[in-house]
Amino acid sequence: MNEYRPTVPSAEGRPKGRRSPNEFSELARSIRDSGLMRRRYGYYWAKLVGFPLLLAGALGAFVLIGDTWWQLLTAAFLALLFTQIAFLGHDAAHRQIFVSGKWNDWVSLILGDLMVGMSYGWWQFKHTRHHDNPNKLGSDPDIELPVIVVAPGRRAASGRLRSWIRAHQGVFFFPILLLEGISLHASGIRRVVARGRLERRWAEIGLLIIRLIGFPTLVFLVLSPGIAFAFLGIQLGIFGFYMGMSFAPNHKGMPIVPRDASLDFLRRQVLMSRNIRGSRLLDTAMGGLNYQIEHHLFPSMPRPHLRKAAPIIEAYCRSHDVAYAQVGLFASYAIVVHYINRVGLGERDVFSCPLMEQRSHLAPSA
After folding, report:
1. Of 23, 65, 78, 182, which is most buried, counting CB atoms within 10 Å of its CB?
2. What is the band of 166 on the pLDDT scale with cuts at 50, 70, 90?
3. CA distances for 345 relative to 158, 171, 178, 331, 334, angstroms
4. What angle do CA 123, 228, 237 make, to 5 degrees?
5. Is 257 helix (H, G, I), strand (E, B) or coil?
6. 253 contacts 335 by C-beta, under 8 angstroms
7. Using CA of residue 338, residue 353, residue 276, residue 179, what is the dihedral sign?
């Protein structure tokens, strides 16, 4: 297998394997000249108005339908809608919607905390570190999961049953995503009540109380207890599963970066990310996250421009010998499962992953 060669200091103190610092600047200039960083106010205002109206309509229909098992369909619809609203909050948090940082912050708070029940402060704290160092040991919180091990080197499980589960953890990865909705809510609560600096703490606490207490209260006021519990279970399960299935293919199974490795910005973002090939319908379903490479290189690029930027960035990467990973949706899930199983078996090669084995070259040697 060909190993990616990270930038490391030489004996003379000069980095080996480092490319021209102007490589990303050239790409950024090309993207700006193409007009792909311009705001898309019409696109985003349509969503900012449409989603709240759709949510209000869904809740109104929920009350009118009343106590019936058919409400489980309403729960499924709300789960899908909450996920789409979360994607829009993600765009606002990355400053894709407005020029004003305050406008983006408050939109993120309203969409995330009030409508979805996810803390914007928690997301910002966690997601910023992920973007700074994707897949880097000790820096990226997205590879430090409490249940599934996705980074090599973790202590092997003790006991025959736990060892078997660890060796087949890729199979359990997707069912565990059904609990992701609860985890997202709980993580937000822990963040807003924890010590440490958090902007707009009391605003977040107030909005989360309205959402996380108000919504279940409405459910139990309209539905009988049995149906209400089933309703919340369906809503939380589908919401968590949808969120997890949208984020999982982006980096899982891509190279893990050692703690002491230093990479230039272009390679740090491209080599650790994977795009998912598909139609515009997939773009909508995944909230633009299927263009993970473009998003990591240009986080503030409006979502509708990611598809247009992809061929430009792919061509640029090819011309500079930077591997540009792109696969189909189901192939990406197969890669994730296979990789997580291999990690569970105790493989320790931090640059080993199924997708990379299909390539004859990741980056030229120094």
Report:
1. 78
2. confident
3. 12, 13, 24, 21, 17
4. 40
5. strand
6. yes
7. positive
Token pair 């490589």 is found at: 23
Structural contact between residues 26 and 312, judged by C-beta atoms closer than 8 angstroms: no
Structure tokens belonging to residue 36: 């792909």
- DSSP alpha helices (H): ranges in the chain? 22-33, 41-65, 71-93, 101-108, 120-132, 160-167, 169-176, 180-193, 201-222, 225-247, 265-270, 280-285, 292-297, 303-319, 329-344, 354-357
Contact between 273 and 251 under an 8 Å Cβ cutoff? The reply is: yes
Q: How confident is the model at residue 149 (pLDDT cuts 50, 70, 90)?
A: confident
User: Are the beta carbons of 37 and 300 closer than 8 angstroms?
Assistant: yes
Kindly state the tokens that stand for 9.
């200091």
Residue 249 to residues 159, 296, 330, Cα–Cα distance (Å): 30, 14, 9
The encoded tokens of residue 277 equal 């090939």
Tokens of 339: 């990789």
Q: Per-residue pLDDT tens for 310-336? A: 999 999 999 999 999 999 999 999 998
CA gap 6, 361 in Å, rounded: 14
* In contact, 264 and 21? CB cutoff 8 Å: yes
| Cα Rg of the chain, angstroms | 22
> Residue 262 — φ and ψ, nearest 5°?
-125, 120
Helix axes 303-319, 22-33, angle to 10 degrees: 140
The overall average pLDDT reported for the chain is 86
C-alpha to C-alpha distance for 77 and 60, rounded to whole angstroms: 13
The amino acid that residue 41 corresponds to is: Y
CB 239 within 8 A of CB 181: yes
Enter the DSSP assignment of 34. T
User: How far apart, in Å, are the Cα atoms of 365 and each of 6, 261, 322, 325?
Assistant: 9, 15, 12, 19
CA 275 – CA 329 distance, rounded (Å): 9
Helix (H, G, I), strand (E, B), or coil: what is residue 69?
A: coil
**Cα distance between residue 104 and residue 269, in whole Å:** 24
Q: Which residue has the tokens 């058919």?
A: 70
